[in-house]
Amino acid sequence: MAKRALITGITGQDGAYLARRLTDEGYQVHGAYRRSASLTTWRLKEIGVLDDIQFEPFELAEYNNILRTLDRVQPDEVYNLAAQSFVGISFEQPLYTSDIDGIGVARLLEAIRCVDPKMKMYQASTSEMFGKVQAVPQTETTPFYPRSPYGVAKLYAHWMSVNYRESHDMYTVSGILFNHESPLRGLEFVTRKITSSLARIHHDGKGEMQLGNLDAERDWGFAGDYMNAAYLMMQQETPQDFVIASGRTHSVRDFVNAAASALDMSIEWEGSAEKEVGRNQKTGEVVVRVNPKFWRPAEVEQLLGDPSRARKSLNWNPEVNFEQLVEKMVLADVKNVEAGLLPSRTLE
Questions:
Q1: I need a labelling partner for 117 at 20 to 30 A (CA). Which of 37, 151, 216, 325 fits?
Q2: Smallest Cα–Cα separation from 121: which of 77, 187, 62, 180?
Q3: pTM (predicted TM-score)
Q4: Cα separation, 125 vs 101, whole angstroms
């Protein structure tokens, strides 16, 4: 009999890539989604798995709904990808973020314990839990110091997962995933903002985008690779948590340069801090401008993960490197612009 999986947050970037991996493995996949005016399925359609998903209305704020869904679906594996996942918004909506990303996970863990504690659960943890980093690179044993409501809420969920594993002998694992991107990333995230804006500028021959801290450094990888790691974590005999990262760090400025290079555009930088701009070398026109309104109240300057445990224990190795990732994203957005699938204005 085929294994049955429940993926919360099925309509997001990670949900799509994970659904594809699980369907490839022969799973029956149930997709849990927040009920709204319309079900957003374009990512699942884009990746070719939409017809393979059985959808389940689901709300992490409603314990009885969680309980009934688990009882009805009876999944072998639960992958919790649902969250308020935008760090910037968490400063504006700290209570909502705390409830969904933190307490919501406690509700899910408790519901699993009550319905069937033998169900396996994957929790989507995040490198944002490291925040003001205490060591470089960051490993599974590096102390946490979150710098946003999002990071704090995710840290609570992470430790609750550990607690249920140790207190109730449940199979719970957390993937401490560093930044992972793809052409399916939301437009509100800085990486997709960069690639979609540059694709628009490349198409129109003019325009500029506004960004925040260009010096912030992140460890960026491909979401498809990282969801393969999530699957592998759930297949281990003994549950344990893993850092999933590329082991390389790049600044936001590096990301802009790589995206521009994929479009045969060269950026010349001048000025510093809020006065810094990036010009198209061929035309001399400003295409990037710093706007302090995009700076975080408490910035995370550098995140760099050490994936040694995952490489050794999971035999996991990412297939897409940084340069390939950026090129994949920006060329996909060029096609989106040409097909009229992106807004005509450059994103601010």
A1: 151
A2: 77
A3: 0.95
A4: 10
